[in-house]
User: Fold this.
Amino acid sequence: MVAAIWRPLPSPDLPALTEARLQAHYAAQWLGRAARAFAPSQADDSHTSLAWNDAFDGFVTHPLQPGLRLGLRLHDLTLALLRDGVESPASSFSLIGGGEREAGERLSALLRAEGLDPKGLAAPSPYAMPTHALAEGGHYGGPRLERSLAEIAGWFANANVSVDRLRGAILERGFTAPPPRCWPHHFDLATLTSFAIPGGDKTAYIGAGLSPGDHFYDEPYYYLSIYPAPALQSLPALPELGFWHDKEFFAAVTTARRIAARPNPQADTDAFLAAALSAAFDCFRPLR
Assistant:
């Protein structure tokens, strides 16, 4: 279990936070590309998932070779090769001021120095990315970016604490739940629990995590998703911090602005997630 200490965060400056989130999302694709090129492939694409490293203040890949991982430090958008967890100035660089072409060239040079052939970095992505100037030759950086990137990092760091705490509650119920991982596709940090529905070949899922924002909510938000979706009218009311979302996916949701307005954001977020988890397991009780 991770240390249960939240970072204090202000109420989000949404336009600045959105730009920071999009640039960080694009930057994280370099970790995904490296993992697809060098980490042992898994059928569920989990070899591309990323772990939050609080000391590094960013995400790191699975090993690309023994002892070697690629990391993205969020507050300054630095890509770094970590050898046995240690970053060397000679093997890291900030993306700010350059574009995707420059990033690829510099990362390729670092990988070659480690004896890795970087041509796999150029493989097409298996998914589309949100629209952004970076895809059209734009550069990383901009006004207020570093402050907003630090906020994005804070939301992920806090989520690593709260989602891991919730994972402990899932394990105590006798179910499996992996440690929180970030998936470069949607850029969310989450854990997923699944179990078979008796009498058929269907599987039920409970997913809990944090998205830094997307087309549903243009700000960081916690979610606890339930599949198959239950009837909304059958569910209990959530703590006032959150609400039920039932468009395109079904989940209990609470947003950054709601959390930041609370006098005790960590305790209230943990209570919200615990209540949502209890409601989710009650939905599936007749099926187990």
Remarks:
- The chain has two domains: 14-145, 146-287.
